[in-house]
Amino acid sequence: KICSTEETKQVLRLSLTEFSLPKFYLLFGISKVKSAAVIAFRSSYRDRSFSPGSYERETFALTSLETVTEALLEIMEACMRDIPTCKWLDQWTELAQKFAFQYNPSLQPRALVVFGCISKRVSHGQIKQIIRILSKGLESCLKGPDNYNSQVLIEATVIALTKLQPLLNK
């Protein structure tokens, strides 16, 4: 059985309760709704009035992503204790690293934050890559201070470096 111990079940119950609170809607970028289920399960097929432009999309702050990632990591680690051969975290880390080091203005900042939050070890080479990304973001900001993507990338690299720094050898 997956997640069979009482301790794991308790972590899952508490997490589900926590994620169901309206204060957590903001973390998922859906604070302007009365029920998260309304947005989560709404589809244009069932509800013809819904269209991508019919609601105002909220921005998803990187600090919110950090909080959500840490909460999901806690859930995953609780379940992994019950499954000795589980490789979920390794796979998640591998995917986060792949997207963190691949240029994509939409995904790269988010992947950097996730990579920083879930990594259990980090190499000097990975830190060098993140510093290069930070450098490119700073260069881009110098060219045009209104470059929002560069600012987000800088914020993401700072969050990632802050999370990864304790994992480095002295």
TrEMBL record:
It comes from the Eukaryota. This is NF1 protein. The gene is Nf1.
